[in-house]
Each structure stands twice: as structure tokens, then as C-alpha cells.
Amino acid sequence: TDGQIQLVLAWGAEAIRVPVEGDAEDMIHTVNDLTDYGNFRVAADGRKRALIMGAGLIGCEFANDLSNGGYDVSVVAPCERIFPTLLPPAAADAVQAGLESLGVSFHLGPYVSKLERNGDSAVATLSDGTIVETDVVVSAIGLRPRLEMATSAGLAVNRGIVTNRLLETSAADVYALGDCAEVEGLVLLYVLPLMASARALAKTLTGTPQEVAYGVMPVTVKTPVTPVVVAPPAVGAEGDWTVDGEGSDIQAEFRNKDGELLGYALTGAKVVNKVALNKELPAILA
What we know:
By secondary structure, the protein is of the alpha/beta class. The protein contains six helices and 19 strands. Strands 3-10-4-5-6 form a five-stranded parallel beta sheet, with helices on one face. It has a five-stranded antiparallel beta sheet with strand order 15-16-19-18-17, with helices on one face. Strands 7-8-9 form a three-stranded antiparallel beta sheet, with no helix packed on it.
């Protein structure tokens, strides 16, 4: 604007990697962009067994997709249940049962401590001593905002690059957008917040300052064997979960002591209730 140079940092997030002993660590694939995905497809072509490290959103979506593609899938994660930070237990159990119906096997609690080559394949040793043979390995442990360059440039960072609601960083005329940004303390690694931020920033950069607002933004998990829609309550929100339904069809609602809805999780046939529940939810960032 007015000939002034403005910079937008849109570095995204990087896949979290953990060290694994053995001579086959290079066989572990993270899939966070099209190049990663292309490399994974080449490695997986013609193979039959897949090991997924991580039981969160990405790990479970991969488990569903690979199982549908004819792979024997094993999921390993050091947690008590799948989706440990996203779903309440009843909803998580419903999704796990659906994935198990496809033949996915779960090893929840241990982690992969060693990965060794066995010809063109690999043998994983879990921390509890279990042995899992596999042909391809996917690491889906999680994502974190890319901060290294921002830190080296002296910008304020926390979990992400710190911005206000105009997406301004601590440096004049420098903005942050997307998965690398922490907007008013929020780091939301999902599509809807990214789209809202991009629309607001476009107005700001073309001369009409526009603060970003996050409305009701439920997350759709792409596990078609057991569909999931979840609007997690804010971190630190006080309330309790109530659960209705059975089997694969679960409706869990998180309400405070006054009965106000602060979050929900729907699985199976219950996902049709998202429209009604969305009308009760407060905006994430009004």
C-alpha cells in the first residue's frame, strides 16, 4: 500500500519427527506436502503392509485410506486411546471399532523403539517388545509451526509466530498467515481458520484493515468407516462431557455448569446433528 513493502510469512507447519534406533530410519515417511506424498506413493507401490506411527487425526485418516487400498495396517502410538487430544473416550472408541472392522490393528501404549531392515521390508520393535513386520512406515505424530527463521529474525514467537488480529507480527509491515501463525494465542492447524485469515489479510493488504474472526469451525475427520465431526472445547474450558448413543453412533456434548454448549463430538449417524449444535456454539474468536 502506498508503495510500502509488506512481507507475509506463510511457512506452514512441519511434521514432528522422533528418533528411532536401527538402520531403517530412512524408511519412515512424513506426509506434509505433495513432494512427501509422491515419495510415499512410490515407496508404497506394490507393497502390502503399512505401519503408522501416531493415532491422531492424520494417523487415523491414513489408516482408513490405506486399509481401503488393500494394505494390512498397524497403528502404534504411546497413548491410551486414539485421538487423545481431540475426542472424548466414547467417540474415540467408536472410531477405533470402525477402523478395526476394516482390519486395522492397534498397539496403543508402546512406541516404535527400533526399526531394522529386512530385505526390502522392515521389522519394528516396540517399546513393550512386540515385533511388527512392515513394508512401509508413515510417521503421523503431529505438526508444529515453522519458527526457525522467525526466531533468527528476532520476531516474537511462542507456539507460533505471535500476531494480533490483523495478523501483524512484532515487526512493522510483517505479517504471518496460516499454520505458522499464533493469532491472539490460538494455533489452529486446520483449513477453516486458514481460509478466514487469508480473506481478512487480503483486505488488510489492499488498504482496508480487517481483523480476523474465527466463528464456529468444526473439524471433519476423513474416516469414512466412522464419520467424525468435532468442535473441541477451548483449552482450559470448564465443563463436563455427556454422551448419548451407542456403537458407532455417538453424540458427546461438552457443557458448562450453566448448560451452555462449549464443544461437541459426533460420530457415525450422529454427524447429521452438527448443524443444530453449531447454532449453540460460541465463536472461537469473535
